[in-house]
Design a protein that fits this description.
By secondary structure, the chain is α+β, with helices and mostly antiparallel strands. It is 14% helix and 24% strand.
Length: 194
């Protein structure tokens, strides 16, 4: 089944053959026109119902300000985000979104490093190196997220505004997200420099 955009852009599309709704409208202008059962809620029984595995709600985080974390979880919601500097890559990840406290402070450092600085100048789309990872680790620690670090095993998959993180092994859950799994994949995102 095809779904139309609630914001009126008239896009009717399926992503990757699934029932993901895709729209380029800013996320604050979207509203859901789908039956509540698609949001995991059954009106008839007043109980939660499992989300169909082939039906993800796609939330576009275009024009996002600050730093956020997407914690991997079968939530039925996939967050898409433009990343990779001037390459303008659209990545998507299923989970839940967590804001980073004091994110504007580190957002400016990230912009300076990945866009304004001499190293990348907006062209960080082929992976990160150990120097980039160390900088991000220091920035996370400076705002109270020292239990997170860049996942060095996937540096080649991390790019500007889309960095894979890991939670320290001794931590029982993702910071501020009680009952979450500490082994979950985590992606750190911020506004792309393009």
């Amino acid at each position: 089944m095809y779904y139309g955009c609630a914001a009126g852009c008239n896009k009717k599309s399926l992503a990757s053959g699934s029932n993901r709704r895709v729209c380029s409208q800013p996320f604050w202008q979207l509203e859901c026109r789908f039956p509540r059962i698609h949001a995991g809620y059954s009106e008839r029984q007043n109980t939660t119902a499992p989300m169909p595995s082939d039906s993800l709600i796609e939330v576009n985080l275009q024009e996002l300000e600050g730093v956020y974390f997407i914690v991997g979880h079968e939530s039925g919601i996939a967050y898409s985000h433009q990343c990779g500097g001037l390459a303008c890559i659209q990545n998507s990840f299923q989970g839940f979104l967590v804001p980073c406290s004091q994110s504007i402070a580190i957002n400016n450092h990230l912009y300076s490093h990945f866009y304004a600085g001499p190293k990348y100048k907006g062209h960080c789309y082929d992976g990160l190196d150990a120097e980039d990872a160390a900088l991000i680790d220091r920035l996370l620690a400076s705002v109270g997220f020292g239990t997170l670090s860049v996942d060095r095993s996937v540096l080649d998959k991390s790019i500007e505004a889309w960095v894979y993180l890991k939670v320290d092994p001794g931590i029982p859950c993702f910071p501020y997200c009680y009952n979450s799994k500490p082994t979950s994949s985590v992606v750190m995102i911020w506004e792309n420099s393009d």
